[in-house]
What does this fold into?
Amino acid sequence: MKKLSIICICFILINFVSYNKCKAQGEKPYVIILSMDGFRWDYPEQANTPNLDYIEKIGDRADASIPCFPTKTFPNHYSMATGLYPDNHGIILNNFYAPDLDRYYSIGDSKAVTNPDFYFGEPVWVTAEKQGVKAASYFWVGSEAPHDNIFPTYYYSYDETIPFENRIDGVIDWLKLPEKDRPHLIMWYIEEPDSKGHDVGPNDSEIISMIEYLDSLVGVFNTKINELPIKNNINIIITSDHGMGKISKERVVYLYDLIKQEWYEHIDGGNPVFTIEAKDEYYNTLYNVLSSVDHIKIWKKNELPERLHYGFSVRVKDFVVVADSSWSIWKSSKKISYSGGAHGYDNANKDMHAIFYAYGPAFKNNYKHHAINNIDIYPLICKILGIQPQDVDGKLDNIIPMLDKSD
Ligand code: AMP
Ligand code: ZN
Ligand code: ZN
It folds into this structure.
């Protein structure tokens, strides 16, 4: 753990001192959750992160947030939003063919991401809105599609060109609205350090600089929160969807060198995880060929280990194929010289685990919690907001020790 400099301590004390057990009476609570994409659980140990370190002191830190399998962005953001495994909420990968709709889902296709037919389960912003709690989303996955014809009261269409600083200001502006218009649940998103992690891998000096920049944004955000009159009722969760693993051009399986185009109908996904629909007559050939390849795993649908909670959705195809840790599977036969980072692996792989920090009046001070499952975040948010959750896969019991029992 790093030492905080005197300057940092002063800065942070000004920011946070008022959170120390300070609870306003009679005001309804706020929950603000930030996801910084691909923020691996141990990045704060590699970089100088005074703002996250201080949150750890005045709030809670879990050893990690364990993502669902596959450890990709869309499945996991929607698991945090719904408390459901990807099999149960329908977003089984970032890109997939949905046979139930005869349509393709793709994260870059705004027609798909705004189409409610792809999404099952009830996102927490809808659970909140249905119970009279206004919600807002600044780019959280799934919030551009209505559920039961309900959107968050405030949301934006995804636009990665919006600077992170503007997103902070957007969140703060929502919190400055008159009480009758003000959201009590805000979910917001930053696409770093995922992007940098893909480019350079998780153990690079450029990642450390990115982590330190993001930590400084957390400091700016906290300063602005602390200037609000409602500051003592605000609970903040800072987490991420998955971690990042190092990959190398020396450790690659080229899928199209192994299987022929006439063997399959669909290959969905991206390095290092795919689901493949075989043509009936090639079902055994495809399985036999891929199961003999080193450094990858292939499971028949419905035969994945139970702990992965994956493979029963109609959207998961005949086979699920995933590379071993630090290996890549490229959907090509070309030799790609790419060595940065990747995620999507088995969620038991610690490289895939993400950060989890929380502070505010609902949380204990200076509390270390064991790793949580990210599906437990939905019941946690409902508990803090005092709303009735849906029956979901996530369990409040797993996470409740973080909460200040005196609440
Ligand atoms: P991946 O690393 O492939 O799992 O996905 C990360 C990418 O998802 C990021 O670089 C974002 O650009 C993209 N992304 C995140 N949230 C959204 C969203 N709400 N709508 C569209 N794209 C998104
Ligand atoms: Zn991600
Ligand atoms: Zn990514």
About this structure: The CA atoms of residues 277 and 317 lie 5 Å apart.
